[in-house]
TrEMBL record:
Lineage: Bacteria, Pseudomonadati, Pseudomonadota, Alphaproteobacteria, Rhodobacterales
Protein's recorded name: Branched-chain amino acid ABC transporter ATP-binding protein
ATP-binding keyword on record: yes
Species for this entry: Profundibacterium mesophilum KAUST100406-0324
Domain ABC transporter: from-to ranges: 2-250
CDD domains, sorted: ABC_Mj1267_LivG_branched
Keywords: ATP-binding, Nucleotide-binding, Transport
InterPro entries named among the record's database cross-references: AAA+_ATPase (IPR003593), ABC_AA/LPS_Transport (IPR051120), ABC_transporter-like_ATP-bd (IPR003439), ABC_transporter-like_CS (IPR017871), BCA_ABC_TP_C (IPR032823), P-loop_NTPase (IPR027417)
Gene Ontology CC terms: plasma membrane
Domain of life: Bacteria
A GO MF label: ATP binding
Pfam families: ABC_tran, BCA_ABC_TP_C
Record-linked Gene3D superfamilies: P-loop containing nucleotide triphosphate hydrolases
Length: 261
């Protein structure tokens, strides 16, 4: 689905992404891990159109999408979430979802004057869709709560719900587990797996929680110093000497040696 070829992103003399090449297969949940400063979020920002690459090429289903703006990628079904959730705090949880679909009739002054019945029908359909999404995510009891009052984990679920209000093909999740308690993290993981298996979503996720990555992701891609270091199943990644030295730490290596027969 996504093919990233030789992507560079430089900030002056600093090479945040330095020739990264990777593929994200349709229907996969791909994990992206690496030490802080490896270039993971910068690469996400380049793919999602927030930053223009210095050089390189990005394709989605064979189409060149290099340098397209986020709103253009949104219409192609490429969405992303952020490490810090971006909700509309003064609106209710349900209203946050209902704002997502583009080109609503109520946004146009002419329609607001002369097509009130159409607007009412659209709003009713959006309301039903929002309630269906909230039920899917098991947070329907919060539908009338102000989004700003939600916990960190509930806000991450709301962000995931916003991707469900449109026809998302691939969703990039930036540290969806950051600051989330274990119970809610389990709920988020369940929702990601269900969206993948039942609705055909493709995911790529940055995450530092290796247990969470191991539960959800295959393959796992490792970045270091702006480049792709390794790719494979989580067990292969954990056994990779290069990855252990650069990211997982010598403690894991020593533990494995100590536990060997």
């Amino acid at each position: 689905m996504i093919a990233v070829s030789g992507i560079h992103k430089h900030f002056g003399g600093f090479r945040a992404v330095d020739g990264a090449t990777l593929n994200i297969a349709t229907g996969s949940i791909t994990g992206l891990i690496g030490p802080n400063g490896a270039g993971k979020t910068t690469l996400f920002n380049v793919i999602a159109g927030t930053l223009a690459p210095t050089s390189g090429r990005i394709e989605m289903d064979g189409e060149d999408i290099t340098g397209l703006a986020p709103h253009e990628l949104f219409h192609k079904g490429l969405l992303r979430t952020f490490q810090i959730a971006h909700e509309f705090g003064s609106l209710s949880v349900r209203e946050n979802l209902m704002m997502v679909p583009p080109a609503q009739s109520g946004e146009r002054l002419w329609s607001a004057w002369f097509h009130r019945a159409r607007i009412a029908r659209e709003e009713e359909a959006l309301l039903r869709k929002a309630d269906e999404v909230l039920e899917f995510l098991t947070i329907d009891h919060l539908k009338d709560e102000r989004a700003g009052n939600l916990s960190g984990g509930q806000k991450k679920l709301l962000e995931l719900g916003r991707t469900m209000m449109v026809d998302a093909k691939i969703v990039f999740l930036d540290e969806v587990g950051a600051g989330v308690n274990r119970t809610l993290l389990g709920t988020i993981g369940d929702a990601i797996q269900r969206l993948n298996k039942e609705r055909g979503y493709t995911f790529c996720m940055i995450e530092h929680d290796m247990d969470f990555i191991g539960r959800l992701c295959d393959p796992v891609i490792v970045m270091a110093e702006g480049q792709v270091m390794a790719q494979g199943r989580i067990d292969e990644i954990k056994a990779n000497e290069q990855v252990i030295e650069a990211y997982l730490g010598t403690g894991l290596k020593n533990k494995a040696v100590a536990g060997a027969p």
